[in-house]
């Protein structure tokens, strides 16, 4: 990722489980997400028709194999990205970009509470700080005491 944008991402790794897909999708569902698989093989809805009225996690498969059986069976809905020609898939970065291009403005224009809460914004800023500053513990501890914020871990 260019220009340090990766420091703004919240990444969660599920590499300690035998069933990583199941653990990840279960965690997302427990957080209130609807699981939507992107696949050209199911007739559910087109990307433009996907409801954006609740938290949604889009699941992408590999270009060669597509989604796993676990991901397909755990999905609440399926969405197709329209494509023409002989291939049945875009690579994952193109698929994600197309989905974001179509869904982001719809969410901003139709969902009233799409923005991060003040607490979520603070959490993102603290995450960025922890990844961007050398030895951030002293600075973080200073502000935890000053602001009375105890929920952040170093």
Can you give me a brief rundown of this structure?
The chain is of the alpha/beta class and 154 residues long. The chain has five helices and four strands, in the order αβββαβααα.
Structure notes:
By secondary structure, this protein is an alpha/beta fold. The protein folds into 2 domains: 11-110, 3-Layer(aba) Sandwich (Alpha/beta knot), CATH 3.40.1280.10; 118-147. The protein contains 5 helices and 4 strands. The model has no long low-confidence stretch (mean pLDDT 84).
Task: Calculate the terminal CA-CA distance, rounded to whole Å.
Answer: 25 Å
Q: How is the largest sheet built, in terms of strand order?
A: 2-4-1-3
Question: What class, by secondary structure content?
Answer: alpha/beta
CATH homologous superfamily descriptor of the largest domain:
SPOUT methyltransferase, trefoil knot domain
- Series of H and E elements: HEEEHEHHH
Considering DSSP H and I runs of 4 or more, what fraction of the residues is helical?
A: 40-55%
Task: Please state the overall shape, judged from the principal axes of the Cα atoms.
Answer: elongated
Low-confidence stretches: none
Q: Give a short account of the largest sheet.
A: 4 strands, parallel
CATH top level label of the largest domain: Alpha Beta
Q: Write down the overall mean pLDDT.
A: 84
Strand proportion: 5-15%
Oligomer: single chain
Q: Please, how many helices?
A: 5
């Amino acid at each position: 990722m260019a220009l340090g944008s990766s420091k703004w991402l919240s990444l969660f790794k599920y590499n300690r489980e035998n069933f990583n897909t199941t653990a990840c999708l279960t965690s997302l569902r427990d957080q209130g997400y609807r699981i939507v698989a992107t696949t050209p093989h199911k007739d559910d809805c087109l990307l433009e028709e996907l409801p954006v009225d609740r938290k949604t996690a889009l699941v992408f498969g590999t270009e060669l194999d597509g989604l796993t059986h676990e991901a397909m069976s755990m999905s609440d809905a399926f969405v197709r990205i329209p494509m023409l020609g002989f291939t049945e898939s875009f690579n994952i970065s193109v698929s994600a970009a197309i989905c974001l291009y179509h869904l982001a403005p719809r969410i901003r224009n139709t969902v009233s509470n799409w923005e991060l809460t003040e607490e979520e914004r603070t959490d993102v800023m603290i995450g960025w700080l922890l990844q961007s500053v050398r030895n951030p513990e002293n600075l973080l501890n200073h502000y935890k005491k000053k602001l009375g914020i105890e929920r952040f871990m170093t």
